[in-house]
Automatic annotation (TrEMBL):
Keyword Phosphoprotein: no
An MF annotation (GO) of this entry: protein serine/threonine kinase activity
Gene: spoIIAB
Protein's organism: Chungangia koreensis
Domain spans labelled Histidine kinase/HSP90-like ATPase: 35-140
UniProt keyword ATP-binding, yes or no: yes
Full protein name: Anti-sigma F factor
Length: 148
């Protein structure tokens, strides 16, 4: 393992930006492409937003934790909460499914996460929380930063 970090924060919407920025800084040494950065930030945003909105019902109580591991050009991220959990993970991962239609949620969060990662898994238990784990392989550096 090349590097590892853990970040825990209060489950409030403004901290979603903190999570995105911290994770972007974590992958910066890999010299990712703009597309890779955008996709990575989107996955982090979706998972953190789900924890805040669905796990904790936006009540401002509870902690979201991100653990990230970097090994060569592969990054594994584990985003967890101790909120209400997901009743049916398979159903929640179906495109267009949302448990909050009154909030105009698109139901595409997990679909987006799957399309921007190399591997995605979701585990959840009622009233115990949810853990989203994803892995992303970053492309090889074509030339060293010092040569640019």
């Amino acid at each position: 393992m090349d590097n590892e970090m853990t970040l825990s924060f209060l489950a409030v919407s403004e901290n979603e930006a903190l999570a995105r920025m911290a994770m972007t800084c974590f992958i910066t040494p890999l010299d990712p492409t703009i597309e890779e950065i955008s996709e990575f930030k989107t996955v982090v945003s979706e998972a953190v937003t789900n924890a805040i909105i669905h796990g904790y019902e936006e009540n401002g109580v509870g902690i979201v934790t991100i653990r990230a591991l970097r090994n060569d050009r592969e990054v594994t991220v584990i985003i967890s909460d101790e909120g209400k959990g997901i009743e049916d993970v398979d159903q929640a991962m179906e495109p267009m499914y949302t448990s909050k239609p009154h909030m105009e949620r698109s139901g595409m969060g997990f679909t987006i996460m799957e399309s921007f990662t190399d591997q995605l898994s979701v585990s959840s238990a009622q009233d115990k929380g949810t853990t989203v784990t994803f892995t992303k392989q970053f492309s090889a550096i074509s030339e060293p930063l010092s040569a640019r």
